[in-house]
Structure to design on (1422 residues):
């Protein structure tokens, strides 16, 4: 450990009894741990600048002395680590995990207890966590609050959503931290389940310092612990961990040995580097699934978006308002004739998926119980195994199999996790018996056990139980309305995607901001892939119902670009298939685009403004480029230097039309082909909330002759 | 319905808009329902005396107008019903279910909602419940509180325990209702889980009016609803329903159609009639188990009491204090050498059971996890399928089978119902695979889901789920630390017994009062059989540890009598087998006594003082008599007129010795045989907290010659 230096300096007002410093492998970041007045603190510097002022560490407990002070450093260990690993699916083929580590054992003599704080300092940021060895005086404890601070040293610009125990489905607000108090109450709308935490912000929290350095605060490897919001002191710009309580206001029931999730701070001089960071993944454990052959990327369509479009479909089979599973006899009820998950419609989707090369067809509303699934605090809403009369599960799964397509299961729990846990084995066996290998889970509404939250420890354990049990059955999980991801897809790669943010569905009920998808990769996606469900071609809903004022805040081309800018190995072509049939040339991009990658280049990015990304398809010499902008039209220059030397590629360019505009003219686009090589640069105009999507394949001789070269 | 009269009288101060009266089949009880100021009320008279003054009916809701007033009577129906039915197991072979019924449909015009109040008036009391038909304006609602009152008309004597959401394991206090405030805080001790409800009392609540009439207030058929305590107004002597809240203070999540449990008031001029009442059973639904052949009475011994006696044994296998199931490797740990559930000890119990004709051997502490099972709010305490290394489940169950004995399973949940629900199928399959057909469940400690209570709706549903799932596997359930029984063993006869009161175990930690078992049949046992675990012969614990001041507050003979006075088709001989071997003559009664009956005669009883009961064994010409007294020595006269005409019976009489005393001389007893017939009367002396136990078999010729006749 040549780069590590142990120093004892009186840097702060409080007398420093102990201090220890490590640097990142490249020497740019410096982490100092210190004990002033026996209180553990850390601070972080980047190229000599203070990023995180001295910030407290520790935990407050119920019915036991706090673990926040009275410590001495009993032991410290430093370590350097470097490995490369290959994710089962991902943005790149190989990930470098390289850090210097400092582990301090803190002893509290008054209680004869010891805890350990472990820091890992990467070139792209810091992770640290608390560890609690098993010991006579610390076998079980209950957390009142985590004392961890992130003391920022100025009024940073932030892309934020309000702290909440139950939902992340908010629009982002962009403001300086000092402006948060004035904007806080305006920042959120209603949700099926929400518990706002006053003056707290959710993580991943994207920050930009006045000097242009970016910070991104989150957590990694959230296991056995409640999720974190951060409380903001808008005067001192100090953030403080705020854990999610249970029904009794307790924030965690811990049995030693235990360690908390990592608290993470990604640091970058360029926004592009934030998107390229693999720090959170690196802080997660390697895969616990030995054979991952069955975990595969999924491009899918679904009986879904029609339920959000006026008059196009419903989840429910009837118009009754009171269902009792096992008692309500649907065969005797009058169908409402709008039920989307009917045999005819599903077969149509299977046919379309087969014809256009999709892996799967999601079908929502296939099972009994949708008539009163929502907002009733009902526990036994679904049994996850009983189809509606017009959904012939055997016929349809057989039919799908005959076409080389798989149906994707939908397990909406209505938040009743207790009910889901009772049914889970039966439900997963049902899936296996019918050839399903992927499930979309949902947690709409308040949680049962009542009083628990979507982010509380019991629910974190639940989500992890679902993932692990699904793995036993060979099932991939895409969970919606669950907690913010924290890189656990490294450990459980069958957790292929999640929602945990405001997705495309909101375009139909509250609308998303045009800059929404330029922020999400810097926030929600820092923790893992999102099932954002892009691909809406018919963005204006007045198409279905004259006078309907709702619209997707995006041009059609931007919808294409999202397949590249929003990384996920599970990607939906979310629109109704009839709309794809109206725009077959644009649809070609969705058919072509990869969802799993060997390489990724963040070409340009600024949160809230624009993102341009190039990705190389897994195992192929094909690249795809996606570029998006916020509400402002923009010219972006795409530098093709990521391409292989000397080769020309056919670039199929999907661009906004000259007069395209996300509100007034979203469906105007041009598609053309041109030859590019690594020296090419494309100056590309993007419409207001528009985009550009490019597919690149090596040109064959004929194409080299036929096509023009990009100037 | 000749006995029903519809009357409209202005009986109260409030103008009576509507009144309707029914009488019990024998005409002694009269129930009047009325609407004064549109508020529903009922009152109850017995032979012209007012037992229950006008008392309000209804429910208060969350986020919806209350269902307590603003009603008119839209419809009323009367009905008379009479049937006889045979319980699968019970105190009598045939039960008469005979009542007159009044059902009033109440309409609340302001909300266009309707509820129904159904009254059933039996000769031995009243039952009533609320019914909520499915209707457009009442599909789902959340209960704030039930408004039901029981307005007593005087300062009755009460045998009571403090209201609580989590435990009934208290000593009874005997006082007038007016004295409750002064005694309330002294009435309860600590418990592993308790939530006292100020100035509330638990049901079954036994009351005695100044005129000698007994009232017993409870509930029947507690399904899908939280359990009831009753709040006392010690000045007006009004009791009011107080339901158990969940973690959020809500008392019930209801989906229509629904009906509440029955609120029950047993009425009797004699205490004996209270014990003979089958009103609560009659208000439960008939058995939902079609084939009940597998449900059988169980007399059992167990590896159990030794854990309560100093130095005699432990549940846990080691002395560690931190277990992780699946991680902790017991094979590598040092055994504590006190573990009771070891192969040698269990085989000894199996041998003893086989030798003495017991059906089963309960083994507690057989499975991994006991080291830290208690008070840690730990969720994954047990997996219910992993034995300790010294408990060879296959060998032992095979050995038991070879001896004609069955092991009884023990599922302690530590209150973690969520964990139990996850394991339940696996645990029951494990039982079936190993030949177990009965399980003792336990809920020691605070409930998980955290914030739920032992009596809250979610847990009521849980207990019922356990019973129903056990029935699917052919398993009988004896649940401990669960809710007060409410006669559901009629509907689910595999729910053979429960604890839900302060049982014998408390003799070793807090002690029971000498009058405890003279009260329990009037309180706890009104709802169903109790696994009281009598039969402690070595009552003084200084036998095990000199100087230990604890003792079972009973003579040895009283312990015998409890097998008759405390009805249960599941009865334990709770003492260690070594103690039975010391007193083989007294032990003979436990071997002989039946646990399922064709007939029962309550010979004499007064709550808190004495009980004498005679029961006729199922399918046999054998009777057993048990008599007990409180701390006072007493002479009881046993009238054998219940015997068949003309036949002489050999009575084997187990009586307290002349100087017997529950503290100073508990093990002094006499056993003698004498001939009795239906004209015989036995004047029997009972020691302080003593008893008498008698077995009666028809005398053969030799016995008629040899034995003396009782004078």
């Amino acid at each position: 450990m040549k780069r590590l230096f142990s120093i004892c300096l009186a840097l702060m007002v409080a007398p420093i009894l102990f201090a220890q410093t490590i640097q990142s492998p490249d020497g740019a970041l410096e982490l100092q741990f210190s004990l002033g007045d026996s209180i553990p603190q850390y601070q972080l510097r980047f190229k000599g600048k203070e990023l995180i002022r001295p910030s407290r560490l520790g935990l407050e407990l119920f019915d036991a002395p706090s673990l926040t002070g009275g410590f001495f450093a009993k032991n410290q260990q430093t370590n350097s680590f470097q490995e490369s690993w290959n994710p089962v699916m991902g943005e790149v083929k190989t990930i470098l995990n390289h850090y210097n580590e400092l582990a301090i054992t803190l002893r509290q003599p008054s209680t004869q207890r010891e805890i350990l704080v472990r820091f890992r300092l990467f070139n792209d940021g810091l992770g640290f966590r608390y560890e609690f060895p098993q010991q006579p005086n610390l076998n079980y404890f209950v957390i009142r609050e985590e004392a961890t601070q992130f003391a920022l040293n100025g009024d940073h610009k932030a892309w934020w959503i309000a702290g909440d125990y139950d939902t992340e489905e908010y629009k982002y607000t962009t403001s300086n931290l000092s402006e948060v108090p004035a904007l806080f109450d305006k920042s959120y709308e209603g949700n099926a389940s929400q518990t706002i935490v006053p003056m707290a912000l959710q993580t991943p929290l994207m920050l930009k310092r006045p000097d242009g350095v970016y910070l991104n605060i989150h957590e990694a490897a959230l296991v056995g612990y409640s999720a974190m919001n951060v409380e903001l002191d808008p005067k001192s710009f100090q953030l403080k961990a705020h854990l999610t309580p249970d029904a009794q206001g307790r924030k965690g029931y811990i049995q030693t040995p235990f360690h908390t999730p990592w608290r993470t701070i990604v640091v970058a001089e360029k926004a592009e580097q934030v998107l390229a960071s693999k720090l959170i993944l690196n802080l997660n454990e390697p895969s616990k699934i030995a054979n991952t052959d069955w975990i595969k990327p999924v491009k899918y369509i679904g009986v879904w978006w029609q339920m959000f479009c006026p008059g196009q479909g419903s989840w429910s089979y009837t118009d009754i308002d009171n269902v009792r599973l096992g008692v309500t006899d649907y065969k005797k009820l009058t169908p409402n004739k709008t039920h989307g998950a009917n045999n005819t419609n599903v077969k149509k989707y299977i046919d379309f998926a087969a014809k256009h090369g999709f892996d799967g067809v999601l079908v929502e509303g296939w099972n009994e119980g949708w008539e009163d699934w929502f907002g009733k605090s009902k526990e036994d809403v679904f049994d996850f195994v009983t189809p509606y009369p017009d959904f012939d599960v055997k016929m349809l799964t057989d039919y799908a199999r005959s076409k080389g397509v798989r149906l994707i299961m939908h397990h909406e729990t209505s938040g009743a996790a207790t009910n889901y846990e009772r049914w889970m084995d039966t439900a997963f066996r049902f899936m296996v018996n019918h050839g399903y290998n992927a499930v979309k889970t949902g947690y709409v509404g308040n949680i049962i056990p009542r009083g628990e939250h979507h982010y509380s420890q019991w629910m974190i354990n639940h989500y992890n139980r679902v993932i692990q049990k699904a793995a036993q059955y060979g099932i991939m999980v895409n969970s919606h309305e669950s907690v913010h991801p924290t890189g656990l897809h490294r450990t459980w790669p069958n957790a292929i995607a999640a929602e945990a943010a405001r997705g495309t569905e909101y375009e139909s009920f509250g609308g998303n901001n045009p800059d929404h998808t330029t922020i999400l990769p810097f926030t929600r996606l820092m923790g893992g892939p999102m099932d954002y469900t892009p691909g809406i071609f018919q963005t204006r809903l007045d198409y279905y119902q004259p006078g309907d004022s709702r619209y997707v805040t995006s041009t059609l081309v931007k919808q294409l670009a999202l397949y590249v800018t929003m990384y996920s190995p599970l990607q939906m072509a979310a629109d109704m298939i009839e709309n794809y049939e109206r725009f077959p040339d644009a649809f070609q991009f969705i058919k072509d685009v990869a969802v799993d990658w060997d390489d990724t280049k963040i070409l340009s990015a600024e949160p809230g403004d624009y993102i341009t990304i190039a990705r190389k398809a897994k195992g192929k010499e094909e690249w795809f480029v996606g570029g998006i902008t916020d509400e402002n039209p923009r010219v972006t220059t795409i530098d093709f230097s990521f391409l292989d030397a000397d080769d020309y590629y056919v670039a199929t360019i999907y661009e906004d039309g000259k007069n395209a505009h996300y509100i007034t003219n979203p469906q105007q686009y041009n598609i053309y082909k041109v030859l590019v090589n690594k020296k090419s640069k494309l100056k590309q105009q993007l419409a207001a909330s528009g985009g550009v999507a490019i597919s690149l394949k090596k040109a064959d001789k004929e194409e080299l002759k036929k096509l023009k070269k990009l100037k």
